[in-house]
Design goal:
Elements: H1 2-6, H2 9-40, H3 47-57, H4 62-83, H5 89-101, H6 108-118, H7 130-161, H8 167-177, H9 182-200, H10 206-222
Helix pairs in contact: 2-4, 2-7, 4-6, 7-8, 7-9, 8-9
Length: 227
């Protein structure tokens, strides 16, 4: 944060633009995976409950939940719209009249999202079948891994965009800017810098790697644990 305060205006603008791109990439990943979960369990769980499951498993904040829910609903609407016939002029007129008659407090995506999430309070853990739990667990693992990969790509985007600072500082700035928890942030930090290291450092000795791998495989096969 001190870096951002002391940075010239041009660099701060670059940080802001890069952050916006990274946030959009994370949101897009969430929407892709929440819709995949909705499709995966649609035969057993309605959309609202599937969305609630996703929010709880991924530990999304209320703001993140609203953004993901609104975008997911918009995408579902786009899917449905692609298969519907266009509205006639009369139907469009009635639709506009109905929208104008809605209460002011319900206007806007924010109010609609708040209304949606106020209904998503039911828990399903105790009443889902084992195969459903299994599918949800696999989907959650896939989502977590994909989000980590997206964060790593975003961190590297910070490295490329902020070439005036060194790579560790750029990755750390990304982690701080996105306010990532300590555990995942350590993984993202190390993975991103590992990719940087692979590009700028000499490759690891292949023979040493193969020997270490063979020794590890032998230990696993024999049950020997190095002291």
């Amino acid at each position: 944060m001190a870096l951002m305060k002391s940075s010239p205006r041009a660099r701060q603008r670059q940080v802001d633009l890069t952050t916006a791109v990274c946030q959009e990439r994370i949101l897009a990943a969430h929407v892709q995976h929440v819709l995949a979960l909705v499709d995966l369990i649609a035969d057993r769980v309605p959309f609202d409950d599937a969305l609630d499951i996703y929010v709880r498993i991924l530990r999304l904040s209320p703001e993140q939940a609203r953004n993901v829910g609104s975008r997911a609903l918009a995408e579902l609407g786009r899917r449905d719209g692609a298969t519907r016939t266009p509205l006639t002029e009369t139907e469009l007129m009635h639709e506009r009249e109905e929208q104008e008659e809605e209460p002011a407090e319900s206007n806007g995506a924010q109010a609609r999202a708040d209304a949606l999430f106020s209904r998503l309070r039911r828990r399903v853990r105790g009443r889902v079948q084992e195969d459903l739990r299994h599918r949800i667990s696999l989907a959650a693992a896939r989502t977590e891994d994909e989000l980590l990969a997206t964060h790593v790509e975003n961190a590297l985007l910070f490295v490329r965009s902020l070439d005036e600072i060194d790579e560790p500082e750029a990755v750390e700035l990304y982690v701080d800017t996105m306010q990532l928890p300590e555990g995942p942030s350590d993984v993202i930090y190390n993975r991103a810098l590992r990719l940087v290291a692979d590009q700028v450092l000499p490759p690891l000795p292949a023979i040493a790697n193969e020997a270490a791998l063979e020794e590890a495989e032998h230990n696993m096969a024999t049950g020997d644990v190095p002291s």
